[in-house]
Amino acid sequence: MHKHNKHSKDYNFKVLIKDSPQLAEFVFESQYGKDTIDFANPKAVKSLNSALLKTHYGIQYWDFPDDNLCPPIPGRVEYIHILNDLLKTSGLKNEITVFDIGTGATCVYPLLGHTEYNWNFIASEVDASAYNNAKQIVEKNNLSNHIECRFQDNPQSILNGVLHSSEKITASLCNPPFYKNEVEANENSKRKLKGLGNSTNDLKRNFSGKANELWYPGGEKAFLHNYLYQSSLFKTNCFWYTSLVSKKELVKSMQSSLKKLGAADVKVLQMSLGNKISRIVAWTFLTKEEQKDWKV
C-alpha cells in the first residue's frame, strides 16, 4: 500500500464511531479480539466507508441508494496516490484537473482527489440517477467550485460528448466495469461471498452495484479498447490517460493497440492492497516537446 495511504493499518473503530455513531451497530469483536464488521453485509460496508470519508477526509455528506456500488475507500485513495506520483514525476504539480470517467452515484474519486491534493475534477456519468446523486453529494459538501459533474447521454461514448475539443485536462482516471453480463458478475459474487463465509445462495454483493457499474457488452476488454480508441481522438487534450486494469492478460493487448494508435509512452503501475495485486495502465500521446510546452 502507498506510504501516504491512511488505511495501511487496522481501522480505529473507536475514533470512527466517535465521528459516525451509526457505525456502532455494525461493529463487533472478532475471534481474535479485534473490532471488525461483517464485510458481507452491504449496510455495514456502506457505514464503514462513510465513516472513513468523514473522519479522514472531512466529507460530511455521502449518501446514495443501497443498490449502487459502494466503493472501498482504501482502494480508491490508493489509485489517487499512485496517480499523484505519476503527475509529480512528469513535472505536473500545479492547477491539476482530472477527468473521472464514470464517477458513479458516490463521486468518490473526485472527493478523495480534491481533499488529498486539491485537484479539480470533471466527473462524467452515464446513469441519470447516479449523476443526480453525485451532483447532490458535491453540492452538499460545498465542492461545486472544484468538481463539475457532466452527464454522458450516449452509453457507448466514453469521452465524446463530455470532453470538449478545446479542453485541457491533466489526467483521466477510470475504474472500468469488469464483467460481460450479469451471469459473470453473479459468479464472481458467489466466490466472494464464499470467501467471506456467507451462503453462496445469497447473491447480494457486499459492495452492491448496478448493471452499468459492473458489466459492459464484451466486458472489461471491450470497454478498455473503446476507451483507448476514443482517447486517440483527443491526443493533445490530456497529458496522462489512465485506467485500472483488473486482468493482467489485458495489458499486452492494450500496449499493442496503443502503439498502433500512436501513443508516445505507456506505463504499467502496480497497485497492491493486502494480498490483491492490480495495476494502472497510463498512456500519453504527447511528444517530449509537447510535454515540455504543457508544463510552461
Task: Write structural notes for this entry.
Strand 4, helix 5 (128-140) and strand 5 (147-151) form a beta-alpha-beta unit. Helix 1 crosses helix 2, helix 3 (73-89) packs across helix 4 (108-117) and helix 8 runs parallel beside helix 9. The protein has a seven-stranded mixed beta sheet with strand order 5-4-3-6-7-9-8, sandwiched between helices. It has one domain: Rossmann fold (3-Layer(aba) Sandwich). The chain has ten helices and nine strands. The chain is an alpha/beta fold and 296 residues long. The protein starts with 12 loop residues before the first helix and ends with a helix. The longest helix is centred in the N-terminal third of the chain and has 17 residues, at 73-89. The radius of gyration is 19 Å and the shape is globular.
- Helical stretch tally: 10
Spell out the helices and strands N to C.
HEEHHEHEHEEHHHEHEEH
* DSSP E strands, number: 9
Strand order of the largest sheet: 5-4-3-6-7-9-8
Give the percentage of residues in beta strands.
Answer: 15-25%
Task: Quickly give the CATH architecture.
Answer: 3-Layer(aba) Sandwich
Q: What is the total number of structural domains?
A: 1
Q: What is the CATH C-level name?
A: Alpha Beta
